[in-house]
């Protein structure tokens, strides 16, 4: 008598791949290095010894020195270094996503799909992520020049003391550091979300279950989607009855996009697979 029971075919939600903390830290550190190099160049010009005893920074020599430093930064083409950082960041994110995605499938199906995942062509997604982050890194330099430049010229007009100008520059620099932290965290989630969708759709997966954080920081437009079924192919709909019917997200004020694609979104999608 055969006691082996035949398993019924059904559906299962597999563990989602989370954003790479290692990639985020790498990205933030690299951007911070860029910001620090620009700050150092500006502060070196501001602190340049003067021929007068005045501690104000309104003399022509001071202005010329700082203007020269700003122009030097503005004229410097950082495309090559920005590309290097973007490649490193996206590469780290992709490597972890690929490894953990294969592991999630293996845990759910008991099959090693590493070779299949390795051979998936998502080059267009990788290229787009690299391009977007090169542009973001270059925008940090542009915003830095505009922000610091405006602060310096305002202080020059007021005849601000050198020590106060240095303090103001550091404060504006901290604003740039904060933006870098925001970009690193936001892009880590967005890139991971793009890789998740690309790989899941390559395997024919379209449906996922929305999983939010459930804390006080979660947006209401995301919270209302928790545990709902959603589609990669149509991010404007959701299902609250297991996929029997699909309703417009706008009817409940829900975000019309996939997890991780909104700014600083910490939500994830649990892919639904057949087994």
Q: Care to give the gist of this entry?
A:
With 275 residues, the protein is of the alpha+beta class. It is built from 7 helices and 6 strands.
The number of E-state strands comes to: 6
DSSP helix count? Answer: 7
Tally the structural domains.
Answer: 2
User: What distance lies between the first and last C-alpha atoms, to the nearest angstrom?
Assistant: 26 Å
Helices and strands, with pairings:
Elements: E1 11-13, H1 21-46, H2 60-75, H3 79-109, H4 114-118, H5 123-158, H6 162-202, E2 207-211, H7 220-223, E3 229-231, E4 237-239, E5 247-248, E6 268-274
Antiparallel strand pairs: 1-6, 2-3, 2-6, 3-4, 4-5
Helix pairs in contact: 1-2, 1-3, 1-5, 1-6, 2-5, 3-5, 3-6, 5-6
Describe it.
With 275 residues, this protein is an alpha+beta fold. It has 2 domains: 13-204, no CATH class; 205-275. 58% of the residues lie in helices and 8% in strands. It has 7 helices and 6 strands. It has helices at 21-46, 60-75, 79-109, 114-118, 123-158, 162-202, 220-223, and strands spanning 11-13, 207-211, 229-231, 237-239, 247-248, 268-274. Strands 1-6-2-3-4-5 form a 6-stranded antiparallel sheet, with no helix packed on it. Helix 1 (21-46) packs antiparallel against helix 2 (60-75) and helix 1 (21-46) packs antiparallel against helix 3 (79-109). Residues 1-8 have low confidence and may be disordered.
